[in-house]
Amino acid sequence: MYKLLLCWRYLKTRYLAFACIISVMLGVATLIVVNSVMNGFSTKLRTLLHSVLSDVVIEAHSMDGFTDPFGKMARIRKDPYLDGQIEAMAVTLEAFAMLQFRHPNGEVAMRPVRVMGIEMKSRSLVGGFHMNLAKQKNNPAPSFDIPENIRVLYEQAEERLQRDRELDHLFPLPKDKADPLANVPEDLKHLFEVKKGESAMPPPMPVPHRPRLPQGVIVGHLIAHYKYRDPETGQIKEGEAIRPGENIVLTTVRGQDLKPSQDSFVVVDFFQSQMSDYDANCVFIPLEHLQQMRFSTDAQQPGDKDQRASNILIRLKDYTQADSVVKALAKVFEHEPLMINTWEEKQGPLLKAIEIEKGLLNVLLFMIIAVAGFGILAIFSMIVSEKTRDIGILKALGASSSGVMQIFLTYGLLLGVVGALMGTILGLSITWNINGIETIIASLTGSKIFQGEVYYFNEIPTDVRWFAILIVNLGAVAIATVFSILPALCAALLHPVQALRYE
Questions:
Q1: How far apart are CA 226 and CA 452, in angstroms?
Q2: Does the predicted TM-score (pTM) go above 0.85?
Q3: What values do phi and psi take at 458, rounded to 5?
Q4: Are 325 and 82 in contact (CB under 8 A)?
């Protein structure tokens, strides 16, 4: 009992002990805050990556994709095991293209993009695609349908051209006006001549006699928006480069001879996944329309298309069975050039880099608690030196060497426990209010710590994991106890007569 009483007395009266407690407290609080923020970023990133992909991805080796995607889905469903594990599937087609649009100031802009052809209903079933839409986020059935006001404008234009067509027989165009090459200079007409075995520049297309209602398109948020600094306030604001209802032009290549293929679209929505790689590069159009742009030939009718795809996205009923599903799919497509991976394997390098960074950061931050341990070692050594006479009296009164050693070990344990508990309270308080604290610091200093335009998160993400907090607390207590062993051993080895002789 005397051991606890002495430990408690030293804990209350020795002010140097509070320095050890504060050191442990700050180390534990720092580890909890940093670990929670890192876990928050990691969890947020994994959630966003999973939402734009699916549980399992079957993809082609080349940009030409693979044939008969719906037949492949039927083969998957024929497998009893796979059919029981799969909840939904979707076909997508990817291609590189040039996007052309007009800025609000009238300037024409072009930029490379990734065009992704999707079926809206099936794509929404395999992931969180519809949850990333800006205009149709809460719509249970999102679509590529263009706004009604835009549709009315095209219908009115069609009516006007219909009236003009009725007058064509009364006012026929001259032959030179009807010829698409009439306005081309003679020294340039050879560019449009097609020789055997060669490809040529396509001649200018005649003006269509009937307006065609364009397809709707969903554009990445960062493609359609730009950031600028307000000259009055100095704050970063966001402006619209492309507005809903505006026209854009997509130009890609068709077939293996890479002939240009382009079409105009009407923007119906924006894709905002908070993943800059997708929001700044991806444009989504209907699957059948992209198939027709990429693979249709002149001999095909407008409704025909080559059934090709780049990916088959699969959502599982139980993701824990993903590895088994991948192996079963590999057997089904054993002799076909397809890559089959889970979303974690597909994003493996990025996720691995984050985990390594978290591990290294935790190791480095544990050195803060190790510094507190050296403080405990120094203070305990000083206490042993100052209390040599008291230790001699205790031993003279019958205290054993193990009892004296237990006093100092218990004292170190108490310092670690109190410091860890206080650090946990401080760390959790900062973590749960970190965005408010960041706002206060930004208002006082005039400089934001967390730049939302860099990370593209609205706020600092946090994820408190209690197991990690338990490990941090146990580590702090263990360090405080271990660093008190040497002073405790020195105190236990003191002989009572020698201890009293020098007093």
A1: 14
A2: no
A3: -70, -30
A4: yes
